[in-house]
């Protein structure tokens, strides 16, 4: 049974720092005792071999491992290929516990009997956030995108508006991680949608056509559109446009490229159309977005 780490909220866990690391063949994870923070590892490429106390894990691409702050972590063996992984350090000021039975409702989480509803309305009700210690992610591509944005925003954390966005993106990371607990065998619809999304993410700079997408996946374009609408809430072209905007946000924060160049870099042929789409999705223009987070 999967081990679960459960956090009592409020308060929710909070983000501290994160990054992207690359290991060459022969590198391995550091050995550390009681680091004092939770360390979330999400592998994007290759495989990491990591142990925690008496447990050992082979963390492959698309999987995540959550290391505890009070345990001993160590590399089991060297990486055999180039391996890229995101790491996120976070902590909580609330209670947390670890075990394989954490999904059972805690008595302390249940409404207190005999307390009038009027009084309950003036106090926060506690609940538990359950995270798997080791899991295959249900939406690895979306996790990579969210962490990438989180790290980019972390580079601008001098601004209060950035700090708020950092907190939002970190909670999205936790939500994606928690969703993996409930992941069942992938349905054909979900598999088709994820394949289509992965293809669009790889080719977002190109002029992708629905017919081309269908030929690559060997599904009818209408079926692909229905699958993506069901799984992501939007058809393929809308998903592609939103992904381009997300990549543009990273360039706005990490480069001094002009708006026109950023539009071209992410697959828009016209800067005006890019600005219109960006404003529609974000509520502000690309220039205003850059000024808000970089103060320029």
From TrEMBL:
UniProt keyword terms in alphabetical order: DNA-binding, Transcription, Transcription regulation
Pfam families, A to Z: AraC_binding (PF02311), HTH_18 (PF12833)
Taxonomic superkingdom: Bacteria
Record-level Gene Ontology MF annotations: DNA-binding transcription factor activity; sequence-specific DNA binding
InterPro entries linked to this entry: AraC-bd, Homeodomain-like_sf, HTH-like, HTH_AraC, HTH_AraC-typ_CS, Tscrpt_reg_AraC-type_HTH
Domain HTH araC/xylS-type: residue ranges: 194-292
Gene3D superfamilies: Homeodomain-like, Regulatory protein AraC
Name of the protein this chain belongs to: AraC-like DNA-binding protein
Annotated source species: Paenibacillus phyllosphaerae
């Amino acid at each position: 049974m999967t081990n679960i780490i459960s956090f009592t909220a409020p308060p929710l866990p909070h983000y501290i720092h994160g990054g992207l690391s690359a290991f060459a063949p022969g590198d391995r994870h550091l050995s550390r005792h009681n680091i004092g923070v939770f360390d979330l590892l999400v592998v994007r490429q290759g495989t990491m071999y990591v142990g925690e106390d008496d447990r050992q894990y082979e963390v492959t691409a698309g999987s995540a491992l959550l290391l505890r702050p009070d345990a001993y972590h160590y590399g089991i063996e060297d990486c055999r290929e180039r391996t890229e992984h995101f790491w996120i350090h976070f902590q909580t000021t609330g209670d947390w516990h670890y075990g394989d039975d954490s999904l059972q409702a805690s008595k302390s989480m249940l409404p207190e009997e005999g307390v009038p509803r009027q009084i309950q309305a003036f106090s926060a009700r506690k609940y538990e956030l359950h995270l798997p210690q080791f899991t295959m992610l249900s939406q690895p591509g979306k996790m990579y995108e969210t962490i990438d944005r989180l790290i980019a925003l972390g580079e601008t954390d001098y601004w209060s508006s950035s700090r708020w966005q950092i907190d939002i993106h970190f909670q999205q990371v936790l939500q994606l991680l928690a969703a993996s607990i409930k992941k069942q065998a992938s349905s054909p619809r979900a598999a088709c949608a994820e394949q289509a999304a992965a293809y669009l993410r790889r080719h977002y700079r190109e002029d992708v056509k629905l017919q081309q997408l269908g030929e690559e996946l060997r599904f009818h374009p209408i079926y692909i559109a229905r699958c993506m609408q069901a799984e992501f809430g939007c058809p393929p072209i809308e998903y592609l446009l939103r992904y381009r905007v997300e990549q543009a946000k990273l360039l706005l924060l990490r480069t001094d490229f002009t708006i026109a160049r950023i539009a071209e870099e992410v697959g828009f042929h016209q800067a005006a159309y890019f600005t219109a789409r960006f404003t529609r999705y974000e509520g502000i223009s690309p220039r205003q977005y850059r000024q808000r987070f970089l103060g320029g």
